[in-house]
Amino acid sequence: MSNLFHMPRAEAQDSSGGVLAGGKLEFFTTSTSSNLDTFSDEALTTANANPVVADSAGRWGAIFLKDEAYKVVLSDSDDVQIWSADPVRGGVENFADDTIRSTLATTGGSNAYAVTVNTTFSALTNGQEFTAKANFTNTGPATLTITPAGGSPLSAVSILKHHDLELAAGDIENGQWFTVKYDGTDFQLLTPLATIPLVLNNLVINGDFRIDQRRGDGTAYTSATTPVNSDDTILLDRWVLLSDGNDIVDVSQETSTVPVGSFAAIKLDVETGNKKFGILQVIEGKDAEALIGGVCSLSFQARRTGTSIANLRAGVAAWSSTVDAVTSDVVNAWGGTGVNPTLVANWTFENTPASLAALTTGFQTFKIENISIDTASTTNVAVFIWIDDATTTITDVIYITDVQLVPGANSTSFPRRSHAEELALCQRYYEKTYNQAVIPTTTTEAGAVRLTDPVVAGSISIHFKTVKRAAPTMTGYSTTGAINKYRDLTTGADFDITLEDIGDSGCHAALADSGSIDEFKGFHWTAESEL
After folding, report:
1. N or C, which end of the chain has less CB nearby within 10 Å?
2. What distance in Å separates the CA atoms of residue 64 and residue 75, rounded to the nearest whole number?
3. Average pLDDT over residues 443-463
4. Which residues face 188 on adjacent strands?
5. What domains sit in the chain, N to C, each tagged with a CATH number?
6. Cβ neighbours of 201 (radius 10 Å)
7. In sequence order, which ranges of 191-324 are alpha helices (DSSP H)?
8. Which bin fits 89, alpha (ψ -120 to 50), beta or left (φ > 0)?
9. Tens of pLDDT along 393-403?
10. What is the C-alpha separation between 439 and 443, in angstroms, rounded?
């Protein structure tokens, strides 16, 4: 009986990791230097050349093996050996990588697959592979039980994907052939997932804190800035600072102390000791629908400096009142160390927050998975991460980044949207005419709305770059920074501006009487439609 040869190594590459053009596979009788034929057809009628030479793309044609044990040597086009594998089994029992293929469908149910193979062994060994046909679609984490030929079932083993993640519903479909590899503890799923996850399914916006429109210049939000670092204040885009009092922490966008691959983190620098604090993001109702009634998973990275901040907690909370009419200050009472905050009316934790692994001075990834969003009448969902220590020391710092909330029972790797995409998502909730690195109220004409007014009290239409969540709160600024003013650039005087007829896509700016016609006028504006 013959079988099709499979490469005993995952890839064939040259010493630089490139395509092995003209690579050579030479086949010998096991433990000898005597060539042993392979064939290009399953009936074993047409022998291949020995060695078998790859094409310019590093690919080989069909290679069928006899029911014998081979030694296989891979060399480059100059006959420099790259690796050797011995034995490589030509029969159906196994290959050099210990693959065992069943021709039967699995049995079992309730996420417990089982299959009987035609090979005899007493225990699983590291590196064994098994291929079988699924007899049902999984609905969550799953196991596989192997029964060797003529033997008893071995213990059920968990099937994992992406190295260490449990399966999500639909990862293996009914009728699908799938392959797993035993790693000494679990089965690693080698087959592509039947359900392909969305690349950008993170419902958190600005999870890596790269967008900071309200300041944008890299300086911290403090008790002396606009906005100030007070409790229940949005600072970095989409993120609400919550704290047990005002001026508890200075907040800034950190771009130096970040994990590999991350652009930024939020930096929380303790200014008032012995107080709890945290950050919150509320998911808009239209997006939260993807989670309501199902399960979701939260993940993020964090680290500390100093010694007083040791513990974090995190939760996903559900809002069960009017959609998007949320109370953003979700904390009714913070509680002491090791005590979860009491939430205000209509907010409910969907998980039971507990202390996560102790913070260190290096970034760690934290995961809270398979959270059921099952509070009755839920309309919005929020992510809340807070410090669980009520004894903090001034100047101690915590950094948080790569916050992700995804549908499903498992966390996934953090999906990085482009900067333009992330900014556009943030501008649904906040937009300004100022350059991104310029703080509103700054004296500048860069980016300002400018016009030559043919009347003494004119008006102009404003159109937003991004449709807002709802009609926003608008503020006008003179190019000198004066609030609710516009600048007569001809005379150098400020006059009142009224932003009116405000809708989700734009508004009108009414300019007060400047006393003269055909004057050059300019102003800035901000539009805020946060939750």
Report:
1. N
2. 19
3. 94
4. 160, 181
5. 99-189 (no CATH), 233-421 (2.60.120.260), 430-528 (2.60.40)
6. 14
7. 285-288
8. beta
9. 999 999 999 99
10. 9
Secondary structure (3-state) at 175: coil
Query: DSSP secondary-structure letter at 9?
Result: S
Give the single-character DSSP code of 36.
-
Name the one residue in this structure whose structure tokens are 């860069």. Answer: 446
- Beta strands 233-234 and 240-243 are antiparallel
Other C-beta atoms closer than 10 Å to the C-beta of 422 total: 21
- Please enumerate, as own/partner, the contacts of 347-351 that have beta carbons within 8 Å and a separation of 24 or more: 347/317, 347/318, 347/319, 347/320, 347/382, 348/317, 348/318, 348/320, 348/375, 349/315, 349/316, 349/317, 350/315, 350/316, 350/317, 350/318, 350/374, 350/375, 350/381, 351/315, 351/316
DSSP assigned state of 47: B
For residues 206 and 263, give the distance between their C-alpha atoms in angstroms, rounded to a whole number.
11
Handedness of CA 315, 318, 319, 323 (dihedral sign): positive
Contact call for residues 326 and 319 (beta carbons, < 8 A): yes
Query: Cα 353–358–359 angle (5° rounding)?
Result: 105
What is the model's pTM?
A: 0.68
Closest to 243 in 3D by CA, of 366, 331, 173, 176: 331
* Helix or strand run (H / E) with residue 419: helix 419-427
CA angle 321, 326, 327 (to 5 degrees): 115
Top pLDDT among 433 and 92 is at: 433
Contact by Cβ (8 Å): 121, 157 = no
Distance CA 349, CA 298 (A): 13
Q: How many CA atoms lie within 13 A of 434 on its CB side?
A: 26
- β pairing state of 99-105 and 129-133: parallel
Each residue's pLDDT tens digit, 214-268: 999 989 999 999 999 999 999 999 999 999 999 999 999 999 999 999 999 999 9
With beta carbons less than 8 A apart as the criterion, state whether 101 and 118 touch: no
DSSP letters along 434-502, please? S-TTS-TT----TT-EEEEESSSS-EEEEE-SS--SSSPEEEEEETT--BTEEEETTTTEEEEEEEES-
**Mapped to the 3 state alphabet, what secondary structure does 186-222 carry?**
CEEECCCCCCCCCCCCCCCCCCCCCCCCCCCCCCCEC
Distances from the Cα of 184 to the Cα of 167, 191, 253, angstroms: 18, 19, 43
Q: Rg of the chain's alpha carbons, rounded to an integer?
A: 31
